[in-house]
Design brief:
The complex is a heterodimer. Helices cover 43% and strands 5% of the residues of chain A. By secondary structure, chain A is mainly alpha-helical. Chain B has two domains: 2-31 and 82-259, Transmembrane di-heme cytochromes, Chain C (Fumarate Reductase Cytochrome B subunit, Up-down Bundle), CATH 1.20.950.20; 272-308, no CATH class. Helices cover 61% and strands 0% of the residues of chain B. Chain B is elongated, with a radius of gyration of 25 Å. The chains are: A mainly alpha, B mainly alpha.
């Protein structure tokens, strides 16, 4: 179906190669120097992959969902989907989100106020299938028609005109992975309906009932984390090697002899980092270590399986894995007898371990949990380390991780730090709780299969890239180094891919990194600049 | 007019039971995981920029401050100004606002008719020339509420209908039933206009009708057009609780029980018992890594071998 024909929700059940193709000509335009940027057509899946896996929503495959081999297999999947839907609406199976789900399912007045809030819908040139209400309304139609008494009476009149078949559920499953779960749409809803929640609930249904989930999140994510200790595959021995390397690196580069504490019982803080930092951005761990050493913070890392990786991808797709990892983290903190747990620069880990899991922790597992940002604010703004802002004399803008701002209300501490250490700090527009997602949220940043990364860069991340360019318009040329402070591992992963796709280092000298790297760069104790202006 | 009387009693009963059942369903839902969205209105000092107590070090040692005034202000702005629609969907606000204000005033009209009927039953006539100032105020307020409410609701309803037909964002999401709902409300409002203009300009007959209803006497319906208005109104009450129009009370839950629900689970606090109860619920999800048949507490603390396959 091409874009000139308007796609309807009931078209989800049609047998067609692709429900809605994407036209680069309609993609949201970018500011200078990208006015003439040519995205080219969306990367196509190989013919072999097309023949094997579902891609019929928009030509993209996030789930690598195999096509059914027989009609019976397809019918079994549809029946299981309906079973899962019943469970999603039951108190016992879904107490975790039943009340918010029912409220969102039963009270949308279809005013479409949420549409403009969605960066994916806007960036795609308003593709109908990315409308925040599209998948939610599809799910409502299915519930109303197939689960409610009399649902099949006057289906067209009542809007229950949807057929449930393999195409419908396969497209619905894929559609749940075209939403970053950033909840910007929910923020604008006058009723309080949450399309982000509905997208997550659809992911949950598929994972918990049909075992359909994204490999990077489930098998290579939470399962691998439980089995090896980290979603990166890093085991405790490798973790200790990483820490040794970090200590050596700090000594070599800055002449500082810092012993990074591991398994120190009774420490004030058990600091939990996203283990992706250790491998992709070890400077983040090093900056934390230097700052805490100089500020005299009592802290430790854990070398226990799972304990050295704050990642909890369960947040993105189901409640069971979410709970298992959160409880494992809490158990480790309890065993170490730390006074509190501190979340490093990882947005989803903040949200998973602080507010979301708050209501599964009982008794001694309910260990006090803090964000790193207020602590860094205290250290920098109350003079616990000496900083010289002139060392950060380059344009800096801040990307707000959705999980930290809109979902947790941690807005000012990181800004107060930047105001103290970065004289050329400027906000993106909009920012704070009104920010746009980087496009890597809800696991997208680590999903590398098929043509999904191409879609992510062209569509999901486009609004953020536009915001970055706008923030640096006064010095957009490559002669000025510029820094996007993205204090979140997943956001950084997305920044890396986004800036690479748009060739933004070469064309504009835009680098990305965390907050602690900027703090360390301003520390007078370091003889050499902490930030190396090399893109990686 | 026994038919109208019975229909009115029945529709009010169904409305109350229908709305009550929906409220009960939402209110009785088990505790859920936190899913708040900032700004949270009751944050006393940080509401403007959307901050929370998570911005504080050792926040759990400090008293959690909640400003009822801030929350009430935010609610009032949402209810009486439709602030969210104003900021995020201005073109819709121009028609939605008069519609909602009109409905509020018409609800006010029903309230005033009830007050007036009670007063008349108690021997205080509601009329232009009554010596009681309060009774006179009720008389004039009823007329003011009625006609201003009806005018606003009519304008808004027509505007909403036109917008749903014309707006390319709204049209594809609007079902025939949605058009019928709006169309029905429009017909009801027009019938009310006709009834008031031709048979009950000062609402005296409506007040008498309410008085008959609350005293269980057979009402006298002054004309056919009033009977049509009453039948249409009754049918509206009968089906309204089963539509998305229930958002008028659901909004309380979406805001107070989800969006602004930031109560922390403190050790020994009031939430622990509810969480304990929920963790004992059975799990019947079928994916291999779940372990169906166990309780949530067991499933969350055991990692099955099947998951590794």
């Amino acid at each position: 179906m091409n874009r000139s024909q308007s796609v309807k929700i009931q078209d989800l059940s049609t047998h067609s190669e692709v429900l809605e193709g994407l036209d680069p000509e309609r993609f949201m335009k970018l500011p200078p120097p990208y006015e003439d940027w040519d995205d080219g057509p969306l990367q196509q899946l190989s013919e072999d992959r097309k023949s094997r896996t579902e891609h019929s929503l928009d030509g993209v495959s996030a789930l690598s969902l195999p096509k059914p081999q027989s009609q019976e297999e397809a019918e079994r999947a549809v029946a299981r989907f309906l079973d899962g839907l019943r469970k999603l609406l039951s108190k016992e199976d879904n107490w975790t989100f039943l009340q918010p789900l029912l409220l969102s399912m039963e009270n949308c007045v279809k005013c479409q106020t949420c549409n403009e809030a969605c960066h994916i819908y806007a960036a795609s040139g308003k593709a109908e299938i990315y409308r925040p209400t599209f998948r939610s309304e599809a799910l409502r139609k299915i519930v109303n028609k197939y689960l409610k008494p009399g649902g099949k009476l006057f289906p067209k009149f009542r809007g229950n005109d949807i057929e449930l078949n393999w195409e419908t559920i396969a497209r619905l499953a894929e559609s749940a992975y075209r939403c970053n779960l950033c909840r910007r749409c929910a923020q604008t809803c006058p009723i309080g309906v949450d399309n982000g929640l509905i997208a997550r609930e659809i992911r949950k249904l598929f994972s918990q009932e049909l075992d359909i989930n994204v490999d990077e999140l489930h098998r290579s994510g939470t399962i691998k984390q439980m089995l090896t200790g980290s979603s990166t595959g890093m085991n405790p021995t490798a973790f200790r090697d990483v820490i040794e390397f970090a200590e050596d690196d700090i000594a070599d580069k800055f002449g500082l002899k810092i012993k990074i504490p591991i398994d120190k019982e009774g420490a004030e803080y058990l600091v939990m980092h996203n283990a992706g930092e250790f491998l992709s951005w070890p400077e983040n761990l090093q900056a934390f270590a230097i700052i805490f050493e100089k500020a005299g913070v009592s802290w430790t890392l854990s070398s226990e399986m799972v304990g050295y990786d704050s990642v909890n991808y369960g947040l993105f797709y189901e409640d069971v894995q979410l709970a298992r990892i959160a409880l494992t983290h809490a158990e480790i903190a309890k065993k170490l007898k730390v006074k509190k747990v501190l979340q490093g620069e990882c947005g989803h880990a903040h949200k998973a371990f602080m507010p979301i899991s708050d209501r599964i922790f009982m008794g001694e597992l309910n260990i006090p949990r803090e964000s790193c940002f207020p602590l860094l604010e205290e250290i920098v703004c109350k003079g616990k380390i000496e900083v010289d802002p002139r060392r950060n004399d380059f344009p800096v803008t801040l990307h707000d991780p959705c999980n930290v701002v809109r979902n947790m209300g941690i807005v000012m501490p990181q800004r107060n730090v930047l105001k103290k250490i970065a004289p050329k700090f400027r906000e993106m527009n909009p920012h704070g709780v009104d920010n746009y997602c980087c496009g890597g949220g809800s696991g997208f940043a680590i999903m590398q299969g098929g043509n999904f990364p191409d879609w992510r860069n062209k569509i999901a991340g486009r609004m953020k890239f536009k915001q970055i360019l706008e923030a640096f318009q006064d010095s957009i040329g490559p002669e000025t180094n510029k820094y996007v402070c993205a204090p979140c591992s997943n956001c950084k992963g997305q920044m890396r891919d986004l800036l690479t796709y748009y060739d933004a280092w070469e064309r504009c000298h835009i680098l990305y990194g965390g907050l602690v790297e900027l703090i360390a760069n301003a520390m007078v104790d370091l003889k050499e600049p902490f930030i190396e202006w090399e893109f990686h | 007019m026994l038919f109208v009387q019975v229909l009115l009693y029945l529709s009010v009963a169904v409305f109350v039971i229908g709305v009550g059942a929906r409220i009960w369903k939402y209110a009785r839902a088990p505790i859920h995981l936190r899913w708040e969205l900032y700004p949270v209105a009751h944050e006393p000092d940080k509401k403007e920029y959307g901050g929370s107590y998570f911005e504080e070090l050792e926040w759990w040692k400090k008293p959690i401050k909640k400003s009822l005034l801030s929350e009430l202000t935010a609610m009032a702005e949402e209810i009486f100004l439709l602030k969210g629609v104003y900021h995020h969907n201005r073109s819709l606000w121009y028609v939605s606002y008069p519609f909602h204000m009109g409905l509020y005033l018409l609800v006010g009209l029903v309230g005033l008719l009830l007050v007036g009927a009670l007063a008349e039953v108690a021997g205080f006539p509601i009329a232009q020339e009554t010596p009681h100032a309060v009774a006179r105020a009720v008389y004039y307020l009823t007329i003011l509420c009625g006609y201003s409410g009806l005018t606003l609701a009519l304008v808004g309803c027509m505007g909403l209908l036109i917008k749903r037909i014309k707006d390319p964002a709204l049209r594809p999401m609007t079902t025939p039933a949605d058009y019928c709902n709006l169309g029905y409300i429009l017909v009801l409002l027009l019938a009310a206009l006709g009834a008031w203009l031709f048979a009950d300009q000062t609402f005296a007959a409506s007040r008498k009708l309410v008085a008959s209803l609350i005293t269980f006497k057979q009402p006298s319906v002054p004309s056919g057009v009033v009977a049509v208005e009453l039948v249409l109104f009754s049918v509206f009450l009968l089906y309204m609780p089963f539509t998305r129009m229930t958002h008028f009370f659901a909004k309380y839950f979406t805001y107070h029980k989800v969006r602004w629900e930031d109560s922390p689970n403190l050790r020994g606090g009031r939430l622990e018992a509810k969480i304990k109860e929920a963790l004992n619920f059975g799990v019947s999800w079928q994916a291999a890594h779940i372990q169906t048949g166990k309780s949530w507490a067991e499933v969350a603390t055991q990692f099955p071998k099947e998951a590794t396959k």
